[in-house]
Design goal:
alpha/beta; 2 domains; five-stranded parallel sheet; binds magnesium ion
Length: 261
């Protein structure tokens, strides 16, 4: 009889996932992790759009003589448009932007983004959704974005995955990430508790928001930042891309189920 032994790599992977679960439970004072809903960030997770956001922000900011670097916009990722403009004004002029300034700059940035963005879904994201759906989990989008060009495309690119009424966008929130508000709204829309959800995020500020909402947060480092930035933001697990996450999804779910068996 042939006995199939799990590979040392798989054992190590499951050990790492177990470690992540126990530190989550301990930190959040939860007894179990029982995922029923997966909350997806949009840019940099479902769409390969962050490079276009960063380029559009950078060019707009330079046009307005605002102090910034191209990389800065990856650190700001997840903030609402208003909050990003305020940060730029604080750095440059040590004051918040006026409503007129916010509107003008966000409008210019959005126009450039729409010009550059090719609407390409993130590589591996469809596979993650297929894997998630095979476990009968709810799927929701929680984004700081107010770009209808992408929000409206979700249904086309990920049919049957996201219902508009259950989405949280830049239009629904008051504070936005890194505040826990967007993910708390996501939990409410899903009708689940913090320990019944998993967040999938690519941005440090998004990871902070997921963690602040008390949710087990998986980071996928699809941008140019160091892994360390996402770990320091509090990510419970870290993947280099969505394809790698899709490949491991079964092991993550199995390990969670076995953890409480
Ligand atoms: Mg993102």
């Amino acid at each position: 009889m042939l006995i199939l032994k799990p590979s040392p790599f798989l054992l190590y992977l499951k050990y790492m996932i177990q470690k992540a679960i126990s530190s989550y439970l301990q930190k959040e004072q939860q007894a179990i992790l029982n995922p029923k809903a997966i909350l997806f960030d949009m840019d940099g997770v479902l769409y390969d759009s962050m490079r276009f956001h960063a380029r559009a922000w950078y060019e707009t900011a330079i046009n307005h003589q605002l102090i910034c670097t191209p990389e800065l916009f990856y650190l700001y990722e997840g903030r609402t448009g208003d909050s990003t403009v305020n940060e730029l004004y604080q750095t440059t002029f040590q004051r918040n932007a006026t409503d007129e300034e916010k509107q003008l700059i966000y409008k210019e940035k959005a126009a450039l983004f729409n010009q550059y963005n090719d609407g390409e879904p993130m590589l591996g994201a469809k596979e993650v959704l297929t894997a998630v759906k095979s476990y009968d989990l709810q799927t929701l989008v929680v984004t700081g974005s107010g770009q209808y060009s992408l929000i409206n495309k979700l249904n086309e690119d990920y049919p049957g995955c996201f219902i508009r009424e259950k989405m949280v966008t830049g239009y629904d929130v008051k504070y936005g990430k890194p505040h826990p508000e967007p993910y708390l709204m996501g939990l409410e829309k899903a009708g689940v508790q913090a320990n019944e959800a998993i967040v999938i995020e690519n941005a440090p500020i998004g990871v902070q928001a997921g963690v602040a909402a008390g949710i087990f947060t998986i980071a996928v480092n699809t941008g140019p930042l160091e892994d360390q930035v996402l770990l320091e933001a509090g990510a419970n697990l870290l993947y280099p891309n969505m394809t790698a996450l899709a490949e491991d999804w079964e092991h993550i779910m199995e390990t969670i189920q076995q953890f409480h068996a």
